[in-house]
Amino acid sequence: MRLQSQIQLFFIIFILTNLFNTINTEFILKDLTDKNDLLKYSSSDCGFDFLVYAFDSRGGSFTDIKLYYRDGTDIPYQRLFYNETSSIFSFSTLAVSSSSEYELPIYGKNVNYPDTASLTLKYNCKYISSSSVSFKKISEFSIDSFGRITSLLKVDAFENKTPYSFLACSKCTILAENTPFGYILVQIKTDIPDSDIDLYFVDTNQSNKSISLKNYYKKQYFDHIDDYNTFPNLSSFKEASLMGDLCSPLMVFVSNSSDIYLPFYAQKSSNLFNKHFTYRLIKSMEDKYLYIGNFDYISNNNAGNSVSYELIYQSGSNFPSITLSNGFTIHDGSRRNYLEFEGIQFSSTLGYSFQPFYITYHDTFISTFPFGFSKGNVNNYEYDFSFLPLQNDPIVTEVAMYSVRGQKGFSYKVPTQSSTHENPLVNSFEFIKLDAFKYILKLSLSSQLTPVYQIKINDYQTFGLETLVKGDTFNGYYELLVDNFNPIKFIRFNNLDGGLINNQFYNILSTQRFKSPEITFDYFKLSDVTALYNEVDVTNKPSSNILYLNFDIDPNTPIALYLYDPTNNYISNKNHFKTENLWYAIYNTTINRFQIEFSIKANIKPGTIPYSIMFSSEKYIMSSILPKKAQINIISKNIDQYGPIFSIITKETFETSLNWNFEIKDDYNGFKNGYIVVRGKTDGNTNNFTLTTDNMKGGSKYSAQYTISIPLIKPCFAQDYIITDVVLFDEQGYNSTFSIYNSYSQSISTSLNNPFVNYMHDSKINILTADPLYCDAVYSSEPFIRSFSVSSSKIDVFSNSRQVDFILLTEDSQGLIHSQLPIVYLSTTNLRTIECKFTFVEPVSIREGNYSCSIELPVGFGYPDPILLQVYGIVNRGGLFGGSSTASLGDQGFINQIKTERSTNGGPIITGSSSITTEGSELWIYGINLLSTQISILSEEGTTENPTISKEYNTAVLIKNISPKSKPFLVISKNEFATNSFKVTPVSKVISNWVPPPVTEPPTNPPQKCINNCNAPLQGTCQKTGCVCIHPWIGADCSSLVIEVSPPKQNSTNPSTEIEVPSDSIKNEILYKSFISMVSLRELDIFGKVVEQRVFDKWIFTSINDTTYQYYTNITVSDQTVHINAILRWFTEKTTISFANQDLEMYPSSIKYTVEISQYPFKKQLNSLQLVMSAGLQSSSTDNICSSQQFGDTSSGDNSNFIKIQIDNHSLYGRLIKRCLLDDTIRGITNEFIDQKDLNISTRTFSNSQNQLNLYIGINIGYFEKSVTIDPDFSVILDHSSANSNSPNSICKKSGLTKTQIVGIAVGGAVFLIVVLIIIGSIIYRSQHCLPLKIIIYKIFKKSKV
């Protein structure tokens, strides 16, 4: 017993000791490995990398940490992050593929202390072989919204990984994009299209599973191709002189197919690779289609190349070699080091052709003429510019200059500005969702050594201290407005490596990862995608549409639509597209759907248009995998996907001017605007010409004539003038572009959009030469700056007063070209440069120039560094230019920089906003110091409103309840320090939030009740649809009788009908007249609001026969004539007619209106037309009668509406068919009553009463392209009972007193008499003379109680 007690005591002590050690342990291990990295697939083994966090509150050196396995074997590790108490280690292990989960215990301790910690790591290396894999094709190869030819596949047998390492394809590229788990996107390579595409799954045992995909390309096309031409039209392109560098020769061909994307391919003479030529469809010509393609002969290197192509199409053709001109060479320059800035100088006698220079220093600045050109002319010049090195730059950074071809001219290392540097500690971060893909990124940063003066996201978006909202550069809070459509991969501080990396740890204390907002989605959560219109006609007009998404995700998820742009199908990289081409989704709470409203350009290629539903630039759903109801088919009779071109060019040379005469042609879309730049080839003087339809000399937007003129005023210098740049836009936004120098990345784009396509054989067409006998000025000396002044040498770049004014006085002995306007360049760190172009002030003489300019600096520009000033672009009349760098301005004694500062009390500054439609609602405004400000809105009319502030931050405020506005308005932000305003221009809403019903087949009327058993069996029978009447009976219960009357009198004025019906009573001859007429045509928006109304006035009458008449009129809407034809037919006997595939019975004495309306210019595709008709009935009797009106569904099977206007026992009966012929297609329409006051027109009709009733009927017709035909009819009937006060919508008035009135009078009189008797009896009862009577009454009531 004692031994048992000792054993129990031992266990108690053991448990308490371990519990105590557990509670008081100082050393902790934690697994930080990403869960997605813990599952891998293999047919042999897998490698795993683990991250382990170790914490010891006692501190000490973490070199004393030991990690080991259960058997005591040390684990070799790498220490990634650490501080006094914490560290993160990484180590690797290998696992053999298996069907079960691995568990790996590891242990750790600080060798200076006895306690230990343990951790069990769990991971999977799942065995996989090709036998367990199956492929499923989700979509065939098709062109996607990025211009790629792709197919989507699903690979089964994988849980949450896409096994790219197991996949192989020789003729396709496997795109490792963020498709959902198990899905694979493949893209066809540009190989010879001669066979199907095979995709293989290959395991480590070399067994495989494959799927064969039908090739998108075909080696043999069965369509007919002709009219093959080249531009320039030469037998050999060797040494071909082209107008612009890197502008490819072009070819065009005509095909009878609009589905050719890449029918040609080419093989270089070196036989090193095959390459598809780049083509695109640009125009339709009746039943043929015009394509354009380029000879991509350009290599991105420094020297000329001689390349020959064999162009293969069926039998093939061979083209001679094409020679690339040599690239421009930049000579080595010299460094000029100043106290506060750096400078670079070089000179050249090799000539300059207005190509851009690329200057790199942390960022890249693309400099164009005249920046840097300080002296000489383009044949012999000096180049001199200054730049500001980064303060506290922690690294040695190279500054370099490159040509457009990538040739490196010179470079040198800028010494580091700081001996110590470190990345700041990120204390916290937070993303706050704003509008679309825009977020606020809040950062709390602290640093002991290096102040944070610059934050750069993904190396393309740079932020300065304008983002610092609290604290200072050593311990501050920052707010950055970021667009996460292109997800944040990393953030650098002060250009240092490291910083924040997406999905990596950022703070050892919190063991958290930095993560940019990420959308996790699954195709299967998208339960429905529907387009409002699955078929749209974009012939000569754009089209609007809505895409509805039923997606089981957060309604705040940013979603956008990206439509394939057929002009850019040469782009095979989706990263080329820009966010301005996106259509953003909103969440419609009424229907609980995302909806994306978008427009489709006019005259694009017919067929299904590809699109993508974008969650970011990396995550998207392609339309090719969506159901049929999500596809959008384009109807386009005309194709115009090329910008405006010069169809005719003539040149004129005069002593005093040089002229180009152009005819600009754009067949279908029409020319909208553009510009042309002409430069002097020697002195670089620049002439800008803006072209619009307002300043054309003649023609129309489809073929417009223009003249541009270069004035030559003596003294002048004889030189060539060259068109260096052209940009022409059509009405749909397509542009044609030309530049004499282009970057390599733009060469294909520029070549395939050349406005000089008809003149590529004439490399001099863009050059005119001044007459040297007239312009005889010679070189002398360069122009110089006589005076340069700045309004302030110091400016608060965080205030509302950030405007800087400059005044420049120049001089030249030969005279200045005053029209050549100099430019002052303002530069700060990272080569960030803005420019202010001077305007000309009246000169004192030809030798002097007086200029001024003003510019508002961006918020925070340059702070805390100075802003460097440089002036270039002064040109004299002797062919020379001049300019001054920052250093040169300082040498001349002029102000050459502006100091920047930041006030402690900052007022609000609004720098931008989200978009808002003319319907109002809500608006995000962006800026600085917006927190706790007063927001108001001032309209152009001067009215002020105070919207609701819904959310507010330092850099963004959401305001709501903004009333609808069609004109720009000011948003005003105010606090105790300052007031700031920002102009917002509303945009027209593409389509309203309201969801109109889709176009359907004509509806079927619901079953009606058989009232009075349809007066069967003689007058009608009861069917499933309701009462079906036997002629001549009619009505809801077949109790009304069609009256046969004489045909109405012929009306030669307008299509109105007056039917007279005599009374059947001999004693009381009462005349009934019915009236039917057409009143107006109205265009309604989707809310039923009238946007256009035309009242019918004059008609042209034609008598077809005794019973049929035709009326014609037309109206003008938006400069378009709309034709209306109405045919009225009177029926004298029962007749069966057919309309819209439906047989209709017409009774004697019925009249049918057949109305046809031609093409109508709808304001929007969602609008509708309403034909307004008037119907009335009038009786000559006014006594003892009622009128009544009724509207409902027929029950005879004709699926129509009926109207019934009744006076006494006579009615006008109208049948309004619910179908029409819309663009030769049967479609449904609706009918309704219209209140007279809603017509807003003078109707000249009588007031409704008991003996006359006039109603207005609206026949509602949906959007149509060509024409619509409707077919209502009317007849007069005799009712078995008269209208009375119980009839629907009755109006009654009778002579004498009705029974009800007599009863009311009798009852009222009796009551009055009783009241009078009571009053008299009460008076008598209270008098003394009534005492005996009171005694008798008392005795009677006393006895009754016994």
Give the C-alpha Rg.
43 Å
Shape: globular
Please give the share of residues in helix: under 10%
For the report, how would you describe the main beta sheet? 14 strands, antiparallel
InterPro entries: ComC_SSD (IPR054484), DUF7034 (IPR055462), DUF7035 (IPR055463), DUF7743 (IPR056645), DUF7949 (IPR057709)
Protein name: EGF-like domain-containing protein
Keywords: Membrane, Transmembrane, Transmembrane helix
Q: Can you give keywords for this protein?
A:
mainly beta, single chain, DUF7034, globular, membrane, transmembrane helix, 14-stranded antiparallel β-sheet, disordered N terminus, about 1350 residues, disordered C terminus, ComC_SSD
SSE map:
Elements: H1 2-23, E1 27-31, E2 39-42, E3 45-56, E4 65-69, E5 78-82, E6 86-96, E7 102-110, E8 116-127, E9 135-137, E10 142-143, E11 149-155, E12 167-168, E13 172-175, E14 183-188, E15 197-202, E16 208-213, E17 225-231, E18 250-255, E19 265-268, E20 274-276, E21 278-285, E22 288-294, E23 306-312, E24 317-323, E25 334-337, E26 342-348, E27 357-361, E28 363-367, E29 373-377, E30 380-387, E31 397-402, E32 408-414, E33 425-433, E34 438-446, E35 455-457, E36 461-463, E37 468-471, E38 475-483, E39 490-493, E40 500-501, E41 504-507, E42 512-514, E43 526-531, E44 535-537, E45 543-551, E46 560-563, E47 582-588, E48 593-600, E49 607-608, E50 611-614, E51 620-622, E52 633-635, E53 645-653, E54 657-665, E55 671-680, E56 686-692, E57 698-700, E58 703-711, E59 720-730, E60 735-739, H2 747-751, E61 767-769, E62 784-790, E63 794-796, E64 803-811, E65 823-827, E66 833-837, E67 839-841, E68 848-856, E69 867-875, E70 881-884, H3 886-891, E71 897-901, E72 909-913, E73 921-928, E74 934-939, E75 944-945, E76 948-952, E77 956-962, ...
Parallel strand pairs: 2-8, 44-52, 63-71
Antiparallel strand pairs: 1-3, 3-6, 4-7, 5-6, 7-8, 9-11, 10-11, 11-14, 12-15, 13-14, 15-16, 17-18, 18-22, 19-20, 19-23, 21-22, 23-24, 25-26, 26-30, 27-28, 27-31, 29-30, 29-70, 31-32, 33-34, 34-38, 35-36, 35-39, 37-38, 39-40, 41-42, 43-45, 45-48, 46-47, 46-50, 47-48, 49-52, 50-51, 53-54, 54-58, ...
